[in-house]
Amino acid sequence: MPRPANKKAARVTVDPQSPCQRKQPAEVNSRYSPRSGGSSPLLEEDDNKPAAVVRTGKKRQFEEEEEGGDFGSEMHKMLELFGADISKTLSNKKKRLEHLTQTSVKTSTKKVEEIWKAQQHERNKLQEEYCRQAESVFQQWETDIEKMKEQEEKLTNLFKQQQKLFLQTRIIQGQRLKTIRQLNEQFMRGLDELDKAHSTQQSAVHSELKKEMALLQKRILMDMQQREVTNVRKSLQTMLF
């Protein structure tokens, strides 16, 4: 004698709201079909309801596929809008970055040119001063030589006096040469000090440029992060609301 059918269990088995049991009627129908030679437990429980169970499952599955297609289409449109917003944001960020970079490069180039011109002016000034003093000494030296020649011609007969004058002239020439050496040493010291000062100044400018570049990079990153957070918030608000 067959057992009474458990109708409550049969309803739970074909419940379309349970995603894990949604395909069970089709599997049961294929597994226990007459061709396989098996018998279905559902058929044993209630011989009057198997066909209705299979039809209901297929109908609900078709409706769920339609709903899934609509949801996929809406999600695709939403992703396209989100992608367009991201492309626009990236384009704006790229333009802003290019503008900031060009401004920084122009400022740095102008500062370097001003420093180079100032250094060149100082070098030219020192060189002109050295040339002026050296020329004055050379002129005095030439004047002394001319005087010496005149004295030699006049005092040919006065050898002793000429000898004394010659000694005096040699002393004067030694002083002039000493002066030239002192000027040369002074020029070299001034040139070395100027090179050291310029090197220190260039190092300071280089360090300052590094700091400015680091600050600029930090500002750009902060701006990018802030804009990304803003865009993500807007996108989430658009998706949620």
From TrEMBL:
Ranges in a coiled coil: 131-165
Record field: compositional bias (Low complexity): 30-42
Keywords associated with the record: Coiled coil
InterPro entries, per database record: XLR/SYCP3 (IPR051443), XLR/SYCP3/FAM9_dom (IPR006888)
Record domain XLR/SYCP3/FAM9: where: 88-219
Bias (Basic residues) ranges: 1-10
Region feature Disordered, mapped onto this chain: 1-74
Metal-binding is among the record's keywords: no
Superkingdom of origin organism: Eukaryota
Family: Belongs to the XLR/SYCP3 family.
The protein's name in its UniProt record: XLR/SYCP3/FAM9 domain-containing protein
Lineage, highest ranks first: Eukaryota, Metazoa, Spiralia, Lophotrochozoa, Mollusca
